[in-house]
Amino acid sequence: MRDLGTNKENTWCSGCGNFGILNAVKKAMSSLHEAGLPLADIAITCGIGCHGKIFDYLALSGVYGLHGRGTATASGIKLANPNLQVISFGGDGDSLGEGLEHTLFAAKRNMDITLILHNNGTYGLTTGQFSPLSEHGYKGLSTPAGNIERPFRAIPLLLEAGATFAARGYSANPDHLADLIVQGVNHKGFSFIEVMQPCVSYNNNYTELNHKIKLLEAIPSSNSQAVELATNRDYIYLGVFSKMLLPVYHEDLYQDANPVRDRLSKLQRTHIIEI
Ligand SMILES: Cc1ncc(C[n+]2csc(CCOP(=O)(O)OP(=O)(O)O)c2C)c(N)n1
Ligand code: SF4
User: Fold this and answer.
1) Which residues contact 171 (CB under 8 A, 6 or more apart)?
2) Per the structure, how many domains does the chain have?
3) Domain assignment of residue 76, yes or no
4) 0.85 surpassed by pTM
5) Fewer CB within 10 A of the end CB, N or C, for the chain?
6) Residue 64 lies in a domain
7) Closest ligand 2 atom to the C-alpha of 12?
8) Ligand 2 centroid from CA 35, angstroms
């Protein structure tokens, strides 16, 4: 297996679910590489948060994004050079709080990119404020008496927005997660992978996750079944919830043109879009 590690000091808390995600990503990238995808054709982006540090620990090229702008940055890279496989890493606060509109519109456009959402149910880096996915009653710095809001669920939201691939993995099951990431990257269109991940310092839900995790037996046959399974309160289902092929944004915009490969000027690009 290709080593995609870097020499950057790892500052995640020991036991953090991000380690499992990093291992899964490395495994997935190695198998995509072995299947013929050059590492130079992979670009990564991220937002800001503990999840974003994964950028420093992967020997891959990309852009370290601004808070919540990981998918916007990934969309820009894809539009500039559709030959690249673009993968964005986001946090639940980052991608579904500060950057919600960018996330939803990338899905709506069926941008051919992959979003890996590190869902630890809290803002980890800023020490435990509640996020849009924090559970009702979650106690953290900003909600010492318990979160009075109820979370929304990421997969139904992204499916409604237009994601054409939606899956859920678990940081403590990196082999399964690696397989989902390979499927997501190979999918043509917006692929969304929610990763359940404990934050051992501010939302240590390992026990609950281990207790509730259950593998889907097959891809649900309808959108309503996918939503029902993705919102189940007794089990946290893992696997692929939805997968469909629809036109992707960059091809609708300018067919097979590639502004970077073809060295197109702004005038030439505008001309292609207008005809
Ligand atoms: C525009 C902006 N707002 C707020 C912050 C402060 N900030 C940095 S990280 C973070 C929380 C990130 O939480 P999440 O996306 O869930 O990631 P995690 O740290 O849990 O991986 C916040 C609010 C910032 N850097 N920029
Ligand atoms: S604060 Fe939470 S998410 Fe951040 S590194 Fe520590 S355990 Fe992981």
Assistant:
1) 17, 18, 19, 20, 21, 24, 177, 195, 196, 197, 198
2) 1
3) yes
4) yes
5) C
6) yes
7) 5
8) 33
